[in-house]
Amino acid sequence: MKKSIAVALCLCAGSTFAEGVNFGVEGGVLTSDLGAEDLAQTLADSTGRTIKYTEEKATSFIRLYAAFEVSEKVDLEVGYFNASSLDASFTALGTTATIDVGVEAAGFDYGLRYKPSDKFYLKVGLHRSEIEATVVGAISGYTVTSATINQTGTGTYFGAGFMPTEQLSLGFTYLSNLAGESDTGATLFYAGYQF
């Protein structure tokens, strides 16, 4: 709660007190592959049963950021992002056993935003992100086991965007090595508003 209040104060006070500093918010869709097909095959191999699965490929996210003007064409950008849960479900055919997996991601990023023109920008940088995965095993709808796994790590990001006005932006960012996992990445498609 204290962090949320601090961020809100920074966003409100930024335009008033800091020259060369802009604050903004981005929201949109995060896409990532949970690897449900591989997990289903692993479950099938270990249980000897056919495993049916469903998975979400996208969820929503929000990102707050501050952009510090380094030069006319370059900003130093620092941000925080948080994504809703991306879910998958596994069922052993012929049984009432299910396993549900929910994965949430959040983290901080910092890097450079290069503006070759007033309408277009490129960005590149580093992120430190955390994945929290919740796994729940159930039989006939009753939970029999559950676990929460947290992992934190660093990675890189790159992206591009279009600014139809000085305040509005549309763009994408690709985060590699989400939570330090070399085979896990996420793409953020967003609309943004800069104060």
Name a few traits of the molecule:
8-stranded antiparallel beta barrel; 195 residues; 63% strand; 9 strands; elongated; mainly beta
Please describe what this structure looks like:
Helices cover about 15% and strands about 65% of the residues. It is mostly beta strands and about 200 residues long. The chain has an eight-stranded antiparallel barrel with strand order 1-3-4-5-6-7-8-9.
Largest sheet: 8 strands, antiparallel, barrel
Percent helix: 10-25%
- Radius of gyration over C-alpha positions, nearest whole angstrom: 20 Å
- H/E topology pattern: HEHEEEEEEEE
Strand content: over 45%
Strand order of the largest sheet: 1-3-4-5-6-7-8-9
Q: Let me know the average pLDDT.
A: 89
Calculate the terminal CA-CA distance, rounded to whole Å: 23 Å
User: Tally the helices: what do you get?
Assistant: 2
Structural topology:
Blueprint (H helix, E strand, L loop, with lengths): L1 H16 L3 E11 L4 H12 L3 E5 L2 E12 L4 E19 L4 E18 L5 E20 L2 E21 L5 E8 L10 E9 L1
Antiparallel strand pairs: 1-3, 1-9, 2-4, 3-4, 4-5, 5-6, 6-7, 7-8, 8-9
Short description:
By secondary structure, the chain is mainly beta. The protein has 2 helices and 9 strands, in the order αβαββββββββ.
